Amino acid sequence: MTINIRRLRDRLPQEIADLESEARQEGYLHITRLIDEWSTGDNRFQRDGERLLGAYVDDALAGIGSMTVETAMSGVLRMRRFYVRPATRGRGIGRILALALLDHARSFCTVVIVHAGNDGAAKFWESLGFQPHGRDGYTHLLALQRHSDDPAASDLRRCATPRSP
Pick from 140, 95, 94, 132: which is nearest to 115 by CA? Predict the structure, then answer.
């Protein structure tokens, strides 16, 4: 099994419809929201720090995940629209996808948040180092370690601070 992580930029992959269908069958609507926001142009993951990635197993889309700017907090990115097909779960695909997004985030922020939709998701995020921290629509928070060669490694001013209303 070969896992390949690809950045999705110009268009959503055709297989996104299959992911949406499977997510809906499980009661999740976040892939539907991703497709809707993409088609209206509301979110194309183009702001600083944002990224949309697809996880492919042997050239078939097995999962998707994104990082977006968190508007409620300064200097924070949010892991969103994260989904791995049920038939491919338990093979490390979600972990590889999440780590790719977190590695990308290190260049833009020191804190990433996520909303875990259920207990299984909470355990997954906690296995990656996220800490329970429910507030403002998210359930978990991860303080990122900067790369040691990053000149901003000691710059803690970019840490999460609530934005004034």
Answer: 140
